[in-house]
Design goal:
By secondary structure, chain A is mainly α. Chain A contains six helices and no strands. The chains are: A mainly alpha, B mainly alpha.
Chain lengths: 163, 342
């Protein structure tokens, strides 16, 4: 348990520092690269919870595809090297206050709810169990989500086409 | 790792595992670079390649080149983003490093037999594109930027058929664990005949072809080498790198080729499995068997690399989206239907 707590602390600290980096940096490329660190930390947290499959989905989809598309878009549309002053403006103080308020609220609620209760870590979830629950118990919600995504995809193509 | 007679603590086990993988990348890159780049390519083009250094067919040439690169100055362009540019080769190498974690070389010789095995390997191999984008952008060079854009478009397009091609194998084996996939091929039978087990290359020949084509594109090797096209982009995202960091990209290129060959050998050729070899003997023979199969797969890969001319950017994209992905989906459907039927 101690080892998990230490690893959680290290990952959480790295994620928090990078998350602050995302909003503080004036270079939009750096912001996207900080986001990679945050996502990787998230994958690490999933592994700590024994959710191996979810962790690698996080790596494949978020780091391997979504952030790559971010970087791709930034490189296509922005002047690549110069920092932009508009990325760091006077709204940062209200922003910091809101973030602190939210952190305080969440911490209070969580501590109030669980106090000193230790949550037992369950054994790692195996992929077979996940697929069984998706394709047996939850097949209809799964298919509906698939249909929804397909509709969104077709909608995007229709909106983007000019002819 | 092999379970040795002596019981090591987790710290020393971790150190040994890390050391083994860290040695695997340069070793694999050296073997591939020398055998395929220096010798096979030369002979296919009716020339000898480097013959003098070290004696036997110039085997020392590549090591000498490596030493030369390490002596060179580490140069950054004036306007480059130094930190991102310095970090980029390590991101590429890290992604290769992580793939080797799950590739088994014997019943007990594997660093981490993860339950998600092949899915994990494909997920971490997709990290290298981040390193390529970092390198191309931070170099502050328009050729490098163009190259990074091309690489991103290409790697995203070919990631899809690469993952889909593997699904057929996973359906047949009933597991994503690479160790389980190897055992399924060793214990399996083709329509009741179990003389040679069941190497999935025989029943998943479409999946194998798709995997090899997509892997070729992921490695940005000809005929899919637009991101590094030396005649248009003068080497692409690597153009501003020199010395040690360029060497890291070179190691990354051939190390990743080694990793993908090892994945293909494990998924389709049965990895360490030999018909009728079990237990301790399989552990002893495993690494050699894997290496032979890896060299076989890599031979195919480099054969295509040295034979075909470069494709055009639009041809490359339409090949992926219009042919490979639909074919992979049909392959999954047919495999699933046959699995249910038999």
């Amino acid at each position: 348990m101690v080892a998990q707590n230490v690893v959680f602390g290290v990952l959480a600290a790295a994620m928090a520092v990078s998350a602050i980096g995302i909003v503080r940096t004036k270079n939009i490329m750096h912001a996207a690269l900080f986001l990679v660190v945050v996502q990787a930390g998230g994958a690490g947290q999933f592994i700590l919870l024994g959710a191996e499959f979810v962790a690698w989905v996080q790596v494949l989809v978020y780091i391997g595809a979504v952030i790559v598309l971010f970087l791709f878009g930034i490189m296509l549309t922005r002047d690549p090297m110069t920092a932009e002053e508009s990325l760091d403006n006077d709204l940062k103080w209200p922003g910091a206050a809101a973030a602190l308020l939210l952190a305080g609220l969440l911490a209070t609620v969580l501590i109030d709810a669980f106090e000193k209760e230790e949550i037992e870590l369950v054994a790692p979830t195996y992929t077979r169990a996940i697929t069984n629950s998706i394709f047996r118990s939850y097949i209809i919600p799964f298919e509906i989500v698939g249909l929804l995504l397909l509709a969104a995809l077709i909608g995007a193509v229709v909106l983007a086409r000019r002819d | 790792m092999m379970t040795l007679a002596l019981d090591l603590g987790w710290g020393s086990t971790l150190a040994i595992k890390t050391l083994v993988i860290m040695l695997l990348i340069p070793l694999g890159a050296l073997i591939f670079g020398w055998v395929f780049l220096f010798k096979m390519m030369a002979h296919m083009q009716s020339r000898l390649g480097p013959m003098d250094s070290g004696g036997f067919h110039g085997w020392f040439q590549l090591i000498g080149d490596g030493i030369k690169f390490m002596q060179k100055e580490d140069i950054f362009p004036e306007k480059a983003d130094r930190r991102v540019m310095a970090l980029a080769p390590f991101v590429v190498l890290l992604s290769t490093f992580l793939v080797f974690l799950v590739i088994p070389a014997g019943p007990r010789i594997v660093v981490e037999p993860l339950d998600t095995g092949v899915f994990y390997a494909l997920a971490v191999s997709s990290l290298s594109v981040i390193g390529v984008l970092m390198a191309g952008w931070a170099s502050a060079n328009k050729y490098a930027l163009m190259s990074a854009l091309r690489a991103a478009g290409q790697l995203i397009a070919y990631e899809v058929p690469l993952v889909l091609a593997v699904v057929g194998v996973v359906i047949q084996a009933g597991t994503m664990n690479l160790q389980g996939i190897v055992v399924a091929q060793q214990e399996g039978a083709i329509f009741g005949w179990d003389g040679i087990g069941h190497p999935f290359v025989l029943t998943q020949i479409v999946g194998f072809a798709l995997f090899m084509i997509a892997a070729q594109a992921e490695l940005t090797q000809p005929p899919f080498d637009m991101p590094v096209a030396e005649s248009e982009l003068v080497g692409g995202y690597m153009v501003e790198y020199s010395g040690f960091r360029f060497l890291l990209f070179f190691l990354g290129e051939f190390g990743t080729a080694f990793a993908f060959s090892a994945l293909a050998a494990t998924l389709f050729l049965g990895g360490w499995a030999l018909p009728g070899v079990h237990g301790g003997t399989a552990d002893a023979l495993g690494p050699v068997v894997v290496l032979v199969k890896v060299m076989l797969v890599a031979f195919l890969m480099f054969w295509a690399r040295f034979t075909y001319p470069r494709m055009r950017e639009d041809q490359l994209q339409s090949l992926a989206w219009k042919w490979l992905i639909p074919l992979a989906l049909v392959n999954i459907l047919v495999t699933g239907a046959l699995k249910v039927a038999f």
